Amino acid sequence: MNPEYSFFDAVCKSFDKAAKYTSFDTGILEQIKQCNSVLRMHFPVKIGDNVEVIKAYRVQHSHHKQPCKGGIRFSEMVNLDEVMALAALMTYKCAIVDVPFGGAKGGISINPKKYSAYDLEKITRRYTSELIKKKFIGPGEDVPAPDYGTGEREMSWILDTYSAMHPGEIDSLACVTGKPVTQGGVRGRREATGLGVFYGIREVCNNEDMMKRLGLPMGVEGKKIIVQGLGNVGYHAAKFFQEAGALIVGLAEYEGSIYHKKGLDVEAVVQHRKSTGSILNFPGATNFSKNTDALEAVCDILIPAALENVINGENAPRVQAKIIGEAANGPLTPEADEVFAAKGTLVVPDMYLNAGGVTVSYFEWVKNLSHVRYGRVEKRFMENQNSNLVAYIEDITGKKVSEAQRDALVHGPDEIDLVRSGLEDTMIRATNEILDCWKKHPDIKDMRTAAFVVAINKVGNSYMELGIFP
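RE: above sequence
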């Protein structure tokens, strides 16, 4: 990454572009833009025979809604600028999808691959205790979640540490989301971000005006897609697009990238990588000389689902996709945005497109506070009601439905059905709200600016309603 590049400055630059389309006082806009609380820490952990000093962060960007919400990433690339930027994006993301959280983010500056599970547990638990001491974690204060380099395992360590230091707190399960289902997690959380990316882009592709502008047919079926990053988000996004009839023509990972114009089987590529250690040399596919070459290959939709700043002013002119769906946080620089706006390429922005994770995390948080599983109360009632309805229809028509049809008609909603339904509705509403805002401001050049306008209006109105500003 260019050492002169500031991720937080890039987010602020996008904010400033959108701010002129709002009616808020400059002081309110400045309050929305700045990070409210920044925690920078160093703590010692015994690793083997040595003591290592670990550098870590937690940033709470906005307190217009509480608790704050945001993931924790483990990466050597973690720095304060990145964490501040990601916390800011969380504020705007939550506002757009109507999730009542302020934005936050955390990070530990380590390479998790260099540590054993035992050492990672010690680091995670010590980090959690530091957050507790500074009141940077709690069901009503700040609720972490998984991010790059972390997952369900790390969240369960955080939960256990928090619960041990808060005995008797009945809502302690809600101190963190992205937990295993057995530890109070919600079904559907693991694939939520990738599924949200699918729902968001599908809604864009179902918009007639947008498809006419881009010269593409309606819907996702048959569209050629390249996905960069086969982690949790990239894998699930690719999987859901493939199931919907799209062609995954290219896949990229850090070891290289592959391309096949007739489409790749995502699951087969994943199995190939598990057995060989690489996606390269997949049967029938062409290897690219560099993993970044996939970003510039022929496709309809490009989905960068890895790290930030992968498309910049230098390589953006060579990107051939007509739609770029930002599954990662900040994969495009402001310079790349300018190039794509001039080219007529549609960038579906990260600040709402990858909100599936926080949306389903919200469902998990609500589940933990209510102490009841989604679907437990109404599932059997709905199945009995549907069964009676099917029997009534069979009686008045004199025809019997097949066993498979009966099962489909009678089925009551499980937790995962309700979670996915809520996520789908959230992404559809958010997409259309942004597109409507863009339509009202025809001089806005890109969808990101329209998304920022929606976010600023919602956060600004919350501040006004709090009575903070006379």
